[in-house]
Amino acid sequence: MKYIVETKDLSKSYRGKQVVRDVDLKVPKGCVYGFMGPNGAGKSTTLKMLLGLVKAGSGEAAIAGKTMNQRNRLEILRKTGSLIESPSYYGHLTGRENLEIVRTLKQAPEKEVDQVLKLVRMERQQDKKAREYSLGMKQRLGLAAALIGRPELLILDEPTNGLDPSGIQEIRELICELPKRLGMTVLVSSHLLSEMDQMADYVGIINHGQLIFQDRLEALHEHSRSRLLLKVMNRTAALKLLEMRQIEGRVAEEGILIPELSDDRAAALVQALAEGGAGLYRVEERQKSLEDIFLSLTGRRASL
């Protein structure tokens, strides 16, 4: 089995509005898969359909080779851990007591509570009532609960919400370690490109309910081809020289952007601009950032 999660034409509508449309996810085993998109793009609805929390309008989803339906749902959930939206907990019980309940329901070994507490670095707060936890500590508790039972697949929806910078870094490091240490596949959603760039092996981007990109993270970076920025005193003369040499030039606020050239062509162009009255005074190499790529794919500025 190559993919632990595979969907085909997965779709969902609410009150006549289609929020997920014909999504074909393919999540390879043993990776961190970043599921990205602007807020409201359909990420959470897609993840809920994978877990059977929301019934798909059409299409199908399979986890670990089993199609999500009433007959297979319990078997699938035994192999899956999840943290969707706000974590569930009993406020009057301690963090440890909450995890003991989850462990009992999953019929996991007793030692796993200590293991997950250590993994999410909650040992010191385990005897505190859950209602007294900060939002960040509640996120850690939810993640610890999801890890009990050593699931094959861990589904996390915006897992760093509410965490301080050091907590965010700890959770990122933990997510990156899980495939190596425990053999898990992690499907993690976020609207933060910078976060995915530090965690994901594969990336899927959803916008207006449609999957518009899916590949390795390196393939996303390949969209960021280098360009040259020409800073000139006379843009009209510079553009005329570019046109004569059949080089596409785009006027930007800081200068003129052109495609990356070979060293020979770049040298010849610099000489022509210097001699042709363009008033060239600087050449800079520019590369698209992940945010620029996201904008070109979705038409929306990414959150930073």
From the structure above, extract its key features:
304 residues, six-stranded mixed beta sheet, 11 helices, single chain, 15 strands, five-stranded antiparallel beta sheet, 37% helix, Alpha-Beta Plaits, alpha/beta, Rossmann fold
3D structure, described in words:
The chain has 304 residues and is α/β, with parallel strands linked by helices. Among the domains are: 3-79 and 151-222, P-loop containing nucleotide triphosphate hydrolases (Rossmann fold); 226-287, ACT domain (Alpha-Beta Plaits, 2-Layer Sandwich), CATH 3.30.70.260. Helices cover 37% and strands 28% of the residues. The strands form 3 sheets. It has a 6-stranded mixed β-sheet with strand order 7-8-9-4-10-11, with helices on both faces. Strands 1, 2, 3, 5 and 6 form a 5-stranded antiparallel β-sheet that branches. Helix 4 packs across helix 5 (135-147). The longest helix has 18 residues, at 165-182. The two termini are 36 Å apart. The model has no long low-confidence stretch (mean pLDDT 89).
Structure summarized in a few sentences:
The protein has 304 residues and is an alpha/beta fold. The chain has eleven helices and 15 strands. The protein has a six-stranded mixed β-sheet with strand order 7-8-9-4-10-11, with helices on both faces. Strands 1, 2, 3, 5 and 6 form a five-stranded antiparallel β-sheet that branches.
Level-1 CATH class name of the domain at 3-79 and 151-222: Alpha Beta
**Straight-line distance between termini:** 36 Å
Strand content of the residues, in percent? Answer: 25-35%
Helix content: 25-40%
Overall strand count:
15
Order of helices and strands: EEEEHEEHEHHHEHEHEEHEHEEHEH
Name the strands of the widest sheet in spatial order: 7-8-9-4-10-11
CATH architecture of the domain at 3-79 and 151-222: 3-Layer(aba) Sandwich
Structural class: alpha/beta
CATH superfamily of the domain at 3-79 and 151-222: P-loop containing nucleotide triphosphate hydrolases
The CATH topology of the domain at 3-79 and 151-222 turns out to be Rossmann fold
Radius of gyration: 25 Å
Mean pLDDT, to the nearest integer, reads 89
Give the biggest sheet.
Answer: 6 strands, mixed
Silhouette:
elongated
Which stretches of 5+ consecutive residues score pLDDT under 50?
none
